Amino acid sequence: MIIETLSTFPHMYDSVMGSSMMQRAQDKGILDFTAYDLRDWTHDRHRTTDDDPYGGGAGLIMKCEPIFEAYQAITGCDVGYAAPAATGNEQPTTGPAPRHADGIRPKTIFLSPCGRPFDDAMACELAREERLLFVCGHYEGIDERAYDLADCQISLGDFARRLRPDERRARVDGRDRCRGAQDRRGTRGRGRGC
User: Among 40, 89, 145, 194, which has the minimal tally of Cβ within 10 Å of its Cβ?
Assistant: First the structure.
């Protein structure tokens, strides 16, 4: 199982993914986890990932350009986005070398308060996937153009939260617990639910 996250706060996973069950799963080769920093695909010296919403409005939204560039680099799939031409003012950022850019498109999940609520059934659905990419919004949301990349949107539920990377940690943990139960019962890969 390959799980990748794209976030402006990739180091939030260090403590969770580097200990307990998650660390053991990685050590045994059951789970391959990578947290990508969206700022690695920006081109200005401030590594800006946010902008004012088109047409005005309160707050800031995540820019779609770094998301498109990161997605193309991580997945190896062309989404028809070309990086802006160099003007000489950009910082030389190209993003890290992707670990799984094999051309196989992952199930791409955008975290959104408007998404389908995460529950046990969804954890089981995700456990059947071989590769997941979680894209985490911040600020007031994500530029709507980026949602074309999403296979689905999911939410932890109807409550306020400050940092959405916590959502991904809960989903990764739930998916792995479900997958472990399927492995123990021998039901994984047979289309049966938890």
Answer: 89
CA distance 109 to 84: 26
Q: What distances in angstroms separate CA 160 from CA 2, 43, 112, 120, one per listed residue?
A: 29, 32, 12, 21
- Full residue range of the structural domain in which residue 176 is found: 2-185
Q: Is residue 158 assigned to a domain?
A: yes
Tokens of 41: 């695909």
DSSP H helix total and E strand total for the chain = 5, 7
Count of structural domains, the chain: 1
Residue carrying structure tokens 């990764």: 172
Any idea what the CATH number is for the domain that residue 70 is in?
3.40.1280.10
**Domain for residue 57, yes or no?**
yes
Segment 140-163, tens digit of pLDDT: 788 889 999 999 999 987 765 555
Contacts of 44 (CB under 8 A, 6+ apart): 89, 90, 91
- Give this prediction's pTM: 0.74
Residue 192 lies in a domain: no
Q: How many whole angstroms separate alpha carbon 152 and alpha carbon 34?
A: 20
Residue 44, domain member (yes or no): yes
Q: How far apart are CA 64 and CA 180, in angstroms?
A: 35
